[in-house]
Amino acid sequence: MDEKYLRDGIDYVKSVLRTMHESAEERSFDMDEQAAWDAGVDFVRTGEAELVALEERKSAIAEFAPVATETGDGAMSTVNVNTHTVRDAFDHETLTTDKSSELRSRALDVIEKHLPSYVDDSAREAATRLVEGRRIDADAVARHIVRTSSPEYLRAFEDYIENPQAGMPRILTKGEARTAMSLTAANGGVLVPQFLDPTIVLTNTGSSNQVRQIADVAQITVDQWDGVTSAGVTAEWLAEGTEAADATPTFVGPTINVHKAAAWLFGSYEVIADSGFGEIAGLIADARDRLEEAAHINGTGSGQPYGLITRLSGTGPVVNATSGAAGAATITAADAYALDNALSPRFRNNASFLAARAVYNQFRSATDANANFWAAFGGGLPAQMIGYNTYTNEQMDSTIVSGSNDFALILGDFSYYKIIDRIGVEIMYEPMVKGSNQRPTGQAGWFAFWRTGADVLSSNAFKVLKV
To answer: DSSP class of residue 176?
Structure first.
């Protein structure tokens, strides 16, 4: 620990101990107070011993006077001992003054060296991509990672989860106390440590919502994403001396707003006591995944993301089943080829299929005898249908009913479906869940909330099969 922080921490804890003694007056401490007192006394004694050792080390270094060496030409040079100390990566006092390059360097150092050992590689890689990407809000992202990853922040978060209302179960150092105060967000929530934050790690291949695996996912630190799209420039053959046509492109500035989503998680005191607080992040991620799985298909865009089918159910993207009029309730091999034929060549190189598993099974039952229609690679790789990777979302229409006009299959370049996550999942703790009669149930819970949005950037990049 930095010497200044250690001295400040000792002074702070001593002041707390004096306040505890004065407040208790002549009475004895209760069990919690005594435990806090003992922890504080132990911290002061240990810290003062560290300071004594530090002073002894300084004295030893001071004895190393500059050593004179001959340079070869009769002159003498001196060699000094470098006693420079590298600054703490979690020095919060400098976070607002660091330049972009140093902030990114600190964030990458935190991701590589200072996260808990149980943080898996996919979470580290996702965070690294955020820091190394070219972003206008790179400083805010790097600052968020550094601020919510320090050991002090993690301890303060654990203490908050264990006992948010009655105060910390142990005395914090001054540095920890300052960090704990930063836990409180503007709207009353507590930011989840970054390596548990599903905003950052949910986009890995462990997600069951496969739309996230193939969509273009971006994280922001504001409430709206602003983009630029264009239909492109039209080229022409031009004869000698002929005036060129005006091919100035038209630019469109799409915007995607983020919407608040929430999940209420609760369990018995026994379950909570036997589980690590890291399990909370997994539960939040699962709840988020299931909520967004539906929104990414049928979301209305009002208070929630726009869904693919919501945006693609118009005349342009829709292709009627080749077995007859829409609503024929029959899937054939020709339907997959019809989507391929209808999709613009511009989007075929990066295109994929999306459907419910039951729809793929209907295609299989109708096409297993067809050579080269299916290719299954195994080893975690997606199967291919007529040369395109296949992905699933169970919110797509799966039961084809005659006359119902089901949207059964999408083929397209899903990088034109943009998912925007605002970094920072917040959580509030409720230590006592009550039943209908307002009596305790022996349970505690967490209210988690986050913001996300999504929309189709170009409907031309997709074709949808209507059966």
So the answer is: H
Strands 251-252 and 229-230: antiparallel
Q: Where are the domains of the chain?
A: 3-62+90-186, 197-229+249-467
pTM (global) more than 0.85: no
| Pairing assessment for the beta strands 388-392 and 76-79 based on DSSP bridges | unpaired
Which of 313, 346, 318 shows the shortest CA–CA distance to 413? Answer: 346
CA 243 from chain centre, in angstroms, equals 52
Longest Cα–Cα distance of the chain, Å, equals: 104
Q: pLDDT tens-digit profile of 416-441?
A: 999 999 888 888 777 778 888 888 88
The structure tokens 């209760």 sit at 30
pLDDT of 415 strictly over 90: yes
Q: Could you tell me which CATH class the domain 197-229+249-467 is placed in? A: alpha beta
List Cβ neighbours of 416 (8 Å cut-off, separation of 6 or more). Answer: 216, 347, 456, 457, 458, 461, 462
The closest of 232, 236, 235 to 249, measured between CA atoms, is 232
**Which residues, in sequence order, are CB contacts of 329 under 8 Å at separation 6+?**
400, 401, 402, 403, 404, 467
β 374-375/384-385 pair status: antiparallel
| Helix, strand, coil percent values for the chain (each to nearest 5) | 40, 20, 40
